[in-house]
Design a protein that fits this description.
178 residues; alpha+beta; 2 domains; two-stranded antiparallel sheet; globular
Length: 178
Amino acid sequence: MNKFSGEIEAQSVVDLIQIHITQGVPVKIKIKGTLFEAYLWIDKGTVVHAELNDLSGVDAFYQAIMMDQGLFSVEANVEAPVQSMHKPFTELVLESYVLIDEGKIKKQEPKINKKSDSFKTWQSKLEEFANIDGFCCSLLIDTTNGMCVFDKFVNKDFHLKSEQISAFLTEDYKNKRR
């Protein structure tokens, strides 16, 4: 089977989905945003399942299409674990835009410490992470969007917290800049 790889830039999650809807194979799209990861499964010309944090189905889809930036990857020939959505893609998108415009759906806000402008708060938060056995890490963070660009950890379990730490440190940096 022939494969191509490279980079594309989409203006929105909806545009990204549209690129893959016409494929004849089921695909799984992973979108890694600043603080959220969304997973979208496409099959038979529509989105059949979505997951984002503790949400799934149409609620996860609504939140995913409101993501304004992130990195994505696509896996071909991946079946959805369940089919939680049964509407055509255009109907899902139009319905979501109406609900967003009416204020019935609001963008899910990340749960991060908003009072991170004091050194004591930052230090206590870091100490919380440092209590993990084998704590040793390096993070390269894009402070414009809080995304962790690169991380390296001695303790593999610590990797799961990199997004939380990146968000916290970015918020702290922005507060100090203000």
